[in-house]
Structure formats: structure tokens, C-alpha cells
Amino acid sequence: VRFWERGAEETMSSGTGSTGAAVAAIARSFAQSPVTVLTPAGALHLRTDGQEAWLTGPAELVAEGCFYTATL
């Protein structure tokens, strides 16, 4: 699966996108749970019972920063 996010262009992976692609494939009988979703960043594994879905795979810190809020 490949992902294109508005404002960020192509991204290496997306948990939401991977889950949507896998659940859609299962719903259309193109795949069966559990499923492996191959992304440019690596493989993600999804399993579902028809009501809930569980996605597992590697995670990597790619940026860090600070967020400041204004006080009134």
C-alpha cells in the first residue's frame, strides 16, 4: 500500500490507511484475517474479528518538537 497525505506528499506508512486497506480487502473477500500490509516503511500485521481490528508493527521516532499554548 502507498500513502499520499495532503500537505505532506507521499508518506512511508499510515496506520489508519493500512487498517482501511486491510479491512476493505477482507470485506471484499480479497484477503482473510490475519493480513500483512506491506508499506514502504515495512510490514504491518492486522487481525480482525469482524467488529474490532488490531494493527501491530514497528514504530520509529522520526521527529520531535515542542508545542506551546497561549495563556489567557
Secondary-structure blueprint:
Layout: E1 3-5, E2 9-11, H1 15-27, E3 35-39, E4 42-48, E5 53-56
Antiparallel strand pairs: 1-2, 3-4, 4-5
Describe the structure.
This protein has 72 residues and is of the alpha+beta class. The protein is built from 1 helix and 5 strands; from the N terminus they run E-E-H-E-E-E. It has one helix at residues 15-27; strands at 3-5, 9-11, 35-39, 42-48, 53-56. Strands 3-4-5 form a 3-stranded antiparallel beta sheet, covered by helices on one side. The protein has a two-stranded antiparallel ribbon with strand order 1-2. The longest helix is centred in the first third of the chain and has 13 residues, at 15-27. The N and C termini lie far apart (45 Å).
Shape: elongated
Give a short account of the largest sheet: 3 strands, antiparallel
Strand content: 25-35%
Could you state the order of secondary-structure elements as H and E?
Answer: EEHEEE
Q: What is the rounded Rg?
A: 16 Å
What proportion of the residues is helical, as a percent range? 10-25%
SS field, number of helical segments: 1
Question: Regions with pLDDT < 50 over 5+ consecutive residues?
Answer: none
Nearest-integer average pLDDT: 91
List keywords for this structure.
single chain, 72 residues, alpha+beta, 3-stranded antiparallel beta sheet, two-stranded antiparallel sheet, 5 strands
